[in-house]
Design brief:
2 domains; Glycosyltransferase; mainly alpha; SQ_cyclase_N; 757 residues; repeat; two-stranded antiparallel sheet; lipid metabolism; binds lanosterol
């Protein structure tokens, strides 16, 4: 029954895949003149009613709901958080003007507290990358998943809002220049949700795409998606052989050694590549074959375009070795050696690994790329009605977010544990944890971290190559369940801080704290540093096999001063309170980690950051590491050089403003829009950790933070803050609260009598 319903949807194909009920509703309204003017061409609504959106928080699982029913609207009023995310006015009263940095923290907390969600954490949009929404929408289309009209409408609005104002295309991320990757995929999304090809914005985007060479010039991942949709032929996709998964573990390039994100993306890619699976052909697909390419579709030399790529997309050109391997795989291995029993075996094992991921994450999956890809694999494997397919469809909603521009996809299923840990630490740094005013908020936050601690390792941990995780915290929530060294550390610090504050209950007993420590201690690399999800399982030479083209540093784990510092500070704090638990190992860990931090310092005195922009972010962490072993400006050349580096970048107005280009180029670049509150806070925190002596310099920065605070206590969103894989930026909207208040609070505690203003 469900099968028939689904294909019926796909067959009325000149229409987008819209929910049956809502399609009917829209058609019956078609005569209503008022309503009709609210449509864009092609039958998609102009906008939804923003008063009807709600974000449901179910133990840290976020799903956006659109209430079409008026009674439901009354029963479920919009919260401050909903309105804030949606960009609706909050109508909050003005707070008494902050007369000191601590007043500014209090005002900031007044505002931030209103955004705390019922389960105790803070939510946020986690957008930036422009290839995530396509993963979700293309997977929906390939699996004939109806797209509710309100999703379709707001997807269209978001993408229109994010189209480049001049050329109409899209980039790798929201601040990036137009690329074939972004334009091909987002143009396709718009067509699949029902926007007409002759809409003026589509005409413009198409012209830009054609100028860049059309979809034949797109990178590997876009070619793979187009092949899955049947818009391109599989021959244009460089080989992704699942038989790599059959290699013995000792093989130095076996996929289990790759960075977790790339191996979880390679997995579904390899499965569908092997099957050359494609979605059912529809009118829209046939039309896209004409729209996306410069050449006549029937005449395209697919295999000949496997390596065609526009230079804008070619951030990490394929190595000679990978080109050679690809040639061999495509021309020798596939036609002559890839016998059916072997490919069957490889597909079966790949599917088994996907099934283990289903089980370990309850079909949520690691993140917004692998999740939708796995959905298509499971659909191709078992048809539309299996539990795994239905559950994946449900859970895919957790990757979505609605902001004032429309509907986008987040980089993960949220930033729940990470932001909550920082929020708690912010209050601690300001010395306000014992203030009864903030107790309810902090208690709720503690309860959230209690609820979100991962209590068990994954089943068959070794079989699916997972890292120990008992006692850990994930970046988002425990459903996703991927432990990360710094996420464990920040959450653990916050739990210890609160549980050691008079008046807070011990929700997490010692044994659970020890579990976290035991897991954390598995995270040190041989050279003393820490990585993200796992210690590296192969060397950086593996980048020679980086086939993604658009990203750098993606194939293996690297060493990160950010992650290393988080672990160091968590272990130090723990050691202070539990001096008898594995003391030797902990001391050794800390000493080796900080020694590594020193070796990682760059000649200019700063450190390169991989997860925030860029030198400012990592230098803040590195200075904190040094401070944790008592090395500060006064007594350490490393700390001094780090401070001097930061100070050399302070701007006239007292702020800092590093641009994301620094992540790509490895050189410090100033942001053209001037000082940023988040960047300024990072620099100030680093300087204060290192006991930088020139207070006047700090005051100038603090003053800027205070002046940027709004009368209701908030700070406004400025330039993008985060990054991954060197080239792709990602937003951390809560940083403008947590780090800003942390800097203000630290200053207030250091110089209690200095009112700054
Ligand atoms: C994240 C987000 C959090 C981030 C920190 C905790 C901040 C960092 O300190 C360690 C690495 C980690 C966990 C991280 C890794 C890469 C992620 C998951 C992301 C930047 C969010 C999105 C990104 C993911 C790779 C996006 C999917 C894209 C691919 C290239 C597969």
């Amino acid at each position: 029954m469900a099968r028939r319903k689904a294909s019926a949807v796909a067959q009325e194909d000149t229409k987008p895949l819209l929910e049956k009920g809502s399609t009917r509703k829209r058609l019956s309204n078609a005569d209503d003149e008022d309503h009709a003017t609210k449509r864009v061409r092609g039958g998609i609504e102009e906008r939804t009613d923003y008063a009807r959106w709600r974000m449901r928080d179910d133990h840290g699982r976020h799903t956006w709901c659109y209430l079409e029913d008026d009674d439901a609207l009354k029963q479920w009023p919009q919260t401050y958080a909903d309105k804030y995310y949606l960009g609706l006015p909050l109508d909050l009263p003005e707070l008494p003007k902050a007369k000191s940095p601590l007043d500014a923290v209090r005002n900031g907390l007044e505002f931030f507290e209103k955004l705390q969600l019922p389960s105790g954490h803070w939510g946020c949009e986690y957008g930036g990358p422009m290839f995530l929404l396509p993963c979700v929408v293309l997977a929906w289309y390939a699996t004939k998943t109806p797209i509710p009209w309100y999703y379709a409408t707001e997807i269209k609005n978001y993408l229109f809002a994010r189209a480049h104002p001049e050329d109409g295309g899209w980039g790798l991320h929201i601040e990036g220049e137009t690329s074939v990757f972004g334009t091909t995929l987002n143009y396709t999304v718009l067509r699949l949700v029902g926007v007409d090809a002759d809409h003026p914005k589509m005409v413009k985007a198409r012209a830009t795409l054609h100028k860049m060479g059309g979809a034949t010039h797109s990178p590997h991942w876009a070619k793979w998606w187009l092949a899955v949709l049947g818009v391109a032929d599989w021959d244009i996709v460089n080989p992704v052989p699942p038989e790599l998964w059959l290699l013995p573990d000792v093989v130095p390039f076996a996929p289990w050694r790759w960075w977790i994100h790339i191996r979880q993306v390679f997995l579904p890619m390899s499965y569908l590549w092997s099957r050359r699976w494609r979605a059912e052909e529809t009118e829209t697909i046939r039309s896209l074959r004409k729209e996306l390419f410069v050449e006549d579709w029937d005449k395209i030399d697919w295999a000949g375009n496997r390596n065609t790529i526009n230079p804008r997309d070619n951030y990490h050109p394929k190595s000679w070795l990978l080109n050679l391997i690809n040639w061999f795989l495509a021309n020798i291995w596939k036609p002559y050696f890839r016998v059916k029993p072997l490919s069957d075996k490889a597909e079966a094992w790949a599917m088994k690994l996907i099934e283990m991921e289903n089980e370990n994450t309850d079909c949520l999956d690691l993140a917004t790329v692998s999740g939708p890809m796995n959905l298509v694999c499971l659909y191709a494997h078992g048809g539309p009605d299996t539990y795994a397919v239905r559950r994946h469809k449900e859970r895919a909603n957790e990757f979505l977010w609605v902001n004032k521009e429309g509907l986008l996809a987040n980089g993960t299923n949220g930033v729940q544990c990470w932001d909550t840990a920082f929020a708690i630490q912010t209050v601690m740094d300001a010395g306000l944890t014992e203030d009864p005013r903030w107790r309810p908020m902090l208690l709720k936050a503690l309860e959230f971290l209690d609820d979100q601690q991962i209590r068990e390792n994954v089943k068959d941990q070794d079989k699916c190559y997972r890292q120990q995780r008992k006692g850990a915290w994930a970046f988002s929530n425990k459903d996703q369940g991927y432990a990360v060294s710094d996420c464990i550390s920040e959450a653990l610090k916050s739990v210890i801080i609160l549980q050691k504050t008079p008046g807070f209950p011990t929700l997490i007993d010692d044994q659970r704290i020890f579990d976290a420590i035991d897991t954390l201690l598995t995270y040190q690399n041989p050279n003393g540093s820490c990585s993200s999800y796992e210690p590296p399982r192969a060397g950086p030479w593996m980048e020679m096999l980086n086939a993604a083209e658009v990203f750098g540093r993606i194939m293996v784990e690297y060493e990160y001063p950010e992650c290393t510092t988080a672990v160091v500070t968590a272990l130090s704090l723990f050691h202070k309170h539990w001096p008898d638990y594995r003391p030797k190992e902990i001391e050794r860990f800390i000493n080796r980690a900080v020694a590594w931090i020193k070796t990682n310092q760059l000649p200019h005195g700063g450190w390169y950051g991989s997860w925030g922009i860029c030198f400012t972010y990592a230098t803040m962490f590195a200075l904190e590491s040094l401070a944790s072993i008592g090395e500060t400006y006064e007594n350490s050349t490393h700390a001094r050089r780090g401070c001097d580096f930061l100070i050399s970048k302070q701007r006239e107005d007292g702020g800092w403003s590093e641009h994301y280009k620094a992540c790509e180029t490895g050189e410090y670049v100033e942001h053209p829009t001037g000082s940023q509150v988040v960047m300024t806070s990072w620099a100030l925190i680093g300087l204060m950790k290192a006991n930088y002596p020139d207070r006047a310099r700090l005051r100038k920065g603090i003053k800027l933070l205070m002046e940027r605070q709004q009368p209701n206590g908030e700070w406004l969103q400025e330039a993008i803050e985060g990054v991954f894989n060197k080239s792709c930026m990602i937003s951390y909207p809560n940083y403008k609260f947590t780090f800003t208040m942390k800097a203000l609070g630290m200053f207030a505690r250091k110089y209690p009598d200095d009112t700054v203003l």
